[in-house]
Amino acid sequence: MTGTATSATHRAIEAVWRIESAKVIAHVARVVRDVGLAEEIAQDALVAALERWPETGVPDNPGAWLMTTAKNRALDRLRLAALHARKHEELGADLDALEAHVVPDFVDALDAAREDDIGDDLLRLVFTACHPVLSTDARVALTLRLLGGLTTDEIARAFLVAEPTIAQRIVRAKRTLSAAKVPFEVPRAEARALRLESVLEVIYLVFNEGYSATAGDDWMRPALCEEALRLGRVLAQLMPEASEVHGLVALMEIQASRLHARVDAQGRPVLLADQDRSRWDTLLIRRGLAALERAETLGGALGPYALQAALAACHARARTVEETDWPQIVALYDALAQVAPSPVVELNRAVAVSMAFGPAAGLEIVEQLADNPALASYPWLPAAQGDLLAKLGRRGEARAAFERAAAMTRNRRDQEVLLARAAEMGTELGADAGAPSEAKKPR
């Protein structure tokens, strides 16, 4: 095969792996009862594909090829373990008898290998990778590796973390799951709500990092948004009666609809009020509204993700900023503050209040948050305060607030926007330039 053809085959393998790896790992994990070992076996199958497919061509059903190869290697591992466990037995003993006698779970493993309930396997993998026994950073890294099929380098670049750091997180996560003897299962009903909360948190963290990058030169990382959205859609198929799953999917669909409008041709941020709404993806909006309706039908209208989706829907339904139903947004933030209170929620509520009832009303709420330690290093606190002060004509104070916000952020694009806002306020700090309060500018 020529170099060009080999390269094309490798690209095909990479695409297949990204799509199929989670299913393969999930199914093998049910057989071997160890997530780390399951990934290792799945990687063996990938290596086999890289060796054979350039010569034989990509199979008609590449996913099934990977699954069968990984399944056979898993059974080989179990047989070898059985033989090692009873090495004092005659090696020529009947293998079937050996399997049944030596490894009590081996027959169950064979049954698991024969079954094709991929949906259940994926759900088990989701709950295992997002287990609360792991730190948040470990859950995110392991989820993107096992369920997203991302390489360690891709995860590291997405979060601007050194590749060895990500590799260590993944290795430690696997060891922690093994040491804690975390079962490869969907938890029972009484524990499922808590575990599901952890799963949704991980998916939303991934989406948010893509939607508003914490640090670096890029304002967004759309690939992370797409990955989180894919995971959310898979979870919604696996748990169709879980209202908050649909609420999270609705929120991500609607937010993702704005991605193309959030930057200009040079990659510079375009804030919500300035976006060309004709560039919003109407298909994603329709999908998001449908998912929100599903969440509400299931009785989850007051779930935290459903409420945030309802907030996003208010913007999606408005053709212009002026047509936005700001009093409704304030009411939704009031409800969100009841079910998921946080300083950031209150900060966003303050901005909504300013849009509905004037900047002075919003600034009054913001000033009450000025000394909250949870927002001490949150750049969107002084950014919003600067915006409200500017609307009230207090330009000197506004400039100081924008400069303070710019000094806090680690994202270059955010910093550029904030410094530009500061420059708009003029170079002189007039008599109104007191110690600035803090506020948040929504994006």
From TrEMBL:
Residue ranges constituting the RNA polymerase sigma-70 region domain according to the UniProt record: 23-79
InterPro entries referenced in this protein's UniProt entry, alphabetically: DUF6596, RNA_pol_sigma-70_dom, RNA_pol_sigma70_r2, RNA_pol_sigma70_r4_t2, RNA_pol_sigma_r2, RNA_pol_sigma_r3/r4-like, WH-like_DNA-bd_sf
Domain called RNA polymerase sigma factor 70 region 4 type: residue spans: 127-177
Domain (DUF6596) ranges: 195-295
Protein name in the entry: RNA polymerase sigma factor
Domain of life: Bacteria
Classification via Pfam families: DUF6596, Sigma70_r2, Sigma70_r4_2
Species: Paraburkholderia kururiensis
NCBIfam families according to UniProt: sigma70-ECF
Record lineage: Bacteria, Pseudomonadati, Pseudomonadota, Betaproteobacteria, Burkholderiales
Residues that span the membrane, as ranges: none
